[in-house]
Each structure stands twice: as structure tokens, then as C-alpha cells.
Amino acid sequence: MTVVPHIGSARHLDVDPRTTILRGCKESLPVSNQTFDLVILGAGSGGYAAALRASQLGMSVGLIEKSKVGGTCLHVGCIPTKALLHAAEVADAARDAAKFGVKATLEGIDVPAVIQYREGIIASKYKGLQGLIKARGITMIEGEGRLTSPTTVQVGDSTITGTNVILATGSYSRTLPGLEIGGRVITSEQALQLDYVPKKVAVLGGGVIGVEFSSVWRSWGSEVHIIEALPRLVPMEEESISKQFERAYRKRGIEFTTGVRFQSVTQNESGVVVTLENGATIEADLLLVAVGRGPATAGLGFEEVGVAMDRGFVLTDERLRTNIPGVWAVGDIVPGLQLAHRGFQHGIFVAEEIAGLNPVVISDVNIPKVTYSEPEVASVGLSEAKAKEQYGDAAVASYEYNLAGNGKSHILETAGSIKVVRVIDGPVVGVHMIGARVGELIGEAQLAVNWDAHPEDVAPLLHAHPTQNEALGEAFLALAGKPLHAM
Ligand code: FAD
Questions:
Q1: Number of Cβ within a 10 Å radius of residue 235
Q2: What angle do CA 376, 378, 383 make, to 5 degrees?
Q3: What is the pTM (predicted TM-score) of this model?
Q4: In the annotation, is 432 catalytic?
Q5: Pairing assessment for the beta strands 327-329 and 396-402 based on DSSP bridges
Q6: Given 3-state DSSP classes, what are the helix, strand and coil percentages for the chain, each rounded to the nearest 5?
Q7: Which atom belonging to ligand 1 lies closest to the Cα atom of 82?
Q8: For labelling, which of 72, 224, 329, 457 has a CA lying 20 to 30 Å from the CA of 466?
Q9: pLDDT per residue over 106-152, tens digit each?
Q10: Which residue's CA is the closest to the ligand 1 atom numbered 28?
């Protein structure tokens, strides 16, 4: 293991890392001129992963955070939304219990109790993360940081110096020009604060965040109408998956308008009226704006120091180096997929790169994506269309296994499919899945794609019966020319 030598570790100073004040003084003095091997601005998924890995590799680390360690994902993103989705699944199970011969009734949703359950999970994970950071000897620096040179970040009166600096300031909920957030026009942050189930919600954006909230609200009894400017819901996914997704949402009674752009919204005490460019109007209690996330980089000194940027995103090469030697960027501020596990991977990657370990680059296309709605969507690698663009029509084959043939899916009463795309006589280059719980199957799929496995290599391996995982095995078997439970 390559270990980076310490360069003036703050652990050698008489410093209380939690309060960033000098210990042993009669008066509390601000810490200044702390020097670390690595300074990280932002302690979300990308920043804290970099800190944990760098400390493992022997670096002294100063981790600057203006709010809470864990960032968007832990506090207002992945974890809270998935807790809501689980409460939605429980509601569906109670509502549909009779289908399985169980007598139960859904009396309603106690939203404050759901919030208590959700906040309990966050509090426990937050505590665990804080403990881990402390145990790894990372110095937490609380406050808003600003990059003042390629090696310094200013936090209040303190100058924090790093041989290397990682920018990891994350993202914020974007809106459209002229569409003001406020009152009944909300983003995901305010949606998480609602302490009631709205009767009717309009959702602007049919991507991951929009369809996940739609799924929760529908399971809780709301009427939902999604507006998506692109021609289909979950437009970043394989076209056949989008079609099945739309069918499933229609069946659940979730309305949607695709291929039409939002024009305007008005609101009063009782609700909102959304007008689309085709003249149609949608009335609802609330409008959730879920049109993507922008990079949180404004006013942080990046441009002044000369960091190359594009529309607020920090530009890097594939090794996450900015144009300034020693300054790196990770997570949502780097153009590409905005996912927590990409942030983790970025953070680990940069720490290892600084340590000279020459880590492997994972391109965005090979990062697994999961949409945790009902049904779930999970994918990794190329769509069939992209594979054909890249390798030529004749060089690509695909197989779509219908979950109707899978015992466990039948038990769960879920519809969907698993599509595997391969290069003929070559590797699996894409896997695209839809159905309840298919997010849990993405691990094997991403291994196949990232290891360039041929279907013939993986087909002989076993899948426990009965699992939904077998459906992936069936697709591999079919592509290897020996389908078992299919023709
Ligand atoms: P962040 O997590 O945003 O962290 C940046 C940190 O930097 C923050 O803590 C912030 O306070 C701090 N900061 C910013 N500026 C400064 C400054 N000047 N000084 C000090 N500190 C600063 N991803 C998934 O993979 N799976 C999911 O299921 C999922 N669900 C999501 C659901 C929602 C509703 C949302 C909004 C996002 C979801 N995401 C999900 C995306 C995921 O949360 C992000 O991709 C991830 O948090 C990005 O990590 P990051 O480190 O780049 O930024």
C-alpha cells in the first residue's frame, strides 16, 4: 500500500476538531493556518468518501462542512425518500392484502409518524457517520468555506491549507426560468417537510425524483399528474422499459402528459393551476418541481482561482483533475450522473489517485442506476439503441425475459422484464430491468457489464430458486443459446 507522507497533520496540533477552537487557551481562539495533506470542501457522499479513504491511506484530512456530514443523500435525498417509499409499499401491501388472503384494511397514513420513522433512520445513520469520521482521525471543520487559492480554503477567520484540495459542494434543486419556488410550488426539500397527504399533486418532471414522489403519493391515496417535456417517463432509460413503466403507472391511476412543455403556474390559498404549452391546464393542491439539480458552486471562489467551469459545473478530466494541479472535483458538481454511489466512487478514486494507487476509471455509462418507485427500474450500461450505434446493428443481440415466467415475481404479483444487451460473440454491454424490487438485482448486472463478461461465462453460474435473480440468469442463458424456462 502506498502511504502519503504527513505534511503538518492537524492531529499534531492541540486542536479540538469538533469545535475548531484551540484547546488549553483561556479564551476560545479561532483556528487558523491549519495545514493538511488533503482539504475537502463539502462533506456529502463525494466529500466524506474521499475523507474516509484518504485517512485510511495515511493522509491528514480537513473536512469542511457548512451544514451536516452526509449531505443531500443522507439528510434530504436518497435515505429519506426511500423511507417514504417503504412506507408507501407498506400502504400498498395493506390495501392489497386480500389478494394474498390476508384480512387487513388501510385506515390512512399518519404522516407525522412516517416522518418520525424516517428521521429516526437519518439520525442513526448520521450518528454512525460522525463516529466513523472521528474514529478515522479526520478533522471536521464546521462553517462555510470559500476557495481562495489552489491550496487554501477560507472558513470564517481561518485559513485551511491543503497540499491537495477536493471540491465537493454538491447540488441544489433547480427550477425553470420564471418558475418561482414558494407557497404551493415546491421542490423535493419542501415535499419532504409536508406533514399531510395532498389530495392532488402536479409533478413537473418525469425523471427519477419526480416519479419517486409520484409513486409515494399515489400509494398514499393522492391523485397525481406528471408533466414531462420529453416524449416518455424515465426518459434516461431504455425505451422498452419506459413503455412498461408508463403502462404500470397508468394501471396505478397515475396520470401523465409527455412531450409537452410547462408554460406557467398560478397559485392561490386553495391550490395551483398549471398551464402547459398546448393550452391544457392541470389543477392541483401543489406543484412539485423536479426538473433536475444544478451544481452548488456559485460564489465559492472557484472561478476567481481559475478553476475551469461550464454553466456552474466544475470541469475535470476522467481522473477527476481540474485544470489546476492539486485541485480535484467529485460528485454532483462534476458533469454527469448525479448519484450518491457515483459520489462515493469519485471520492475513493481521488483519494487513491493522490496516494498514487492508479485506480480504475469507471465511466458514467457503467454506473448502475435505480429508480425506486413502484415498479422499480434498474439499469447499467448501454441501451440497445446506443449499443447498435457503437458496435453496428448486426453486431448486437438482446434478450428480454418477461417476469411473468419467474416464480418469485409471480408470488410478488409484479409485472416487468429484464433485458440484456450483448455484443455478438462478445460481452454483455447493458442490462435493463423493471419490476418490484429489481433494484436489488443490479449488483450482478453491473459486475457482468463492468467485467466484460460474456453471457456464456455467466450462464453456467447458479441463481437460487425461487428468486427474481433467476430472471437475470434466464436472460444470460437465452443469450448463450440455451434458454431454460423460455423458447
Ligand atoms: P452533496 O451530498 O450535496 O453534499 C455537498 C455538501 O457540501 C453538503 O453537505 C453541503 O452542505 C456542503 N457544502 C456546500 N457548499 C459548501 C461550502 N461552501 N462550505 C462548506 N460546505 C459546503 N442518489 C442515489 O444514488 N440514490 C438515490 O436514491 C437518490 N435519491 C435522491 C433523492 C432526492 C430527493 C435527491 C435530491 C437526491 C437523490 N440522490 C440519490 C442524489 C444524491 O443525493 C446526490 O447525488 C449526492 O448527494 C451527491 O453527493 P455530493 O457529495 O456531490 O453532494
A1: 14
A2: 130
A3: 0.93
A4: no
A5: unpaired
A6: 35, 25, 40
A7: 28
A8: 457
A9: 999 999 999 999 999 999 999 999 999 999 999 999 999 999 999 99
A10: 78
